[in-house]
Amino acid sequence: MSNRLLFRQTTQWQGSQRQTLWAAIRASWRRHRSRQRIAGLNGHLLKDIGVSFAEAEAEANKPFWLP
Predict the structure, then answer these.
(1) pTM listed for this prediction
(2) What DSSP designation does 6 have?
(3) What is the DSSP letter of 64?
(4) How far from the centroid of its chain's Cα atoms is residue 57's Cα?
(5) Domain residues of the chain, as ranges?
(6) Angle at 14 between CA 10 and CA 16, to 5 degrees
C-alpha cells in the first residue's frame, strides 16, 4: 500500500465528525457574537439584566474558544 492511499484513508471525515466540528464552530461563533453584543450595552441596559459593568467587561474580553 502506498503512502498516498494511507493518507487518503486517514483524512476522510465521517458524517458524525463533520457534524461535531460544525457544532463546535457554531457554538464558538454564538459565544463571540453574544460577547460582542454585551460589550455594546450601556450601563442602564446592563442594570436591567442584572449584570455589572465589570462582569460584562470580563465576559466580553474572553476569547471565543472559552465557554
Answers:
(1) 0.69
(2) H
(3) T
(4) 18
(5) 14-60
(6) 140
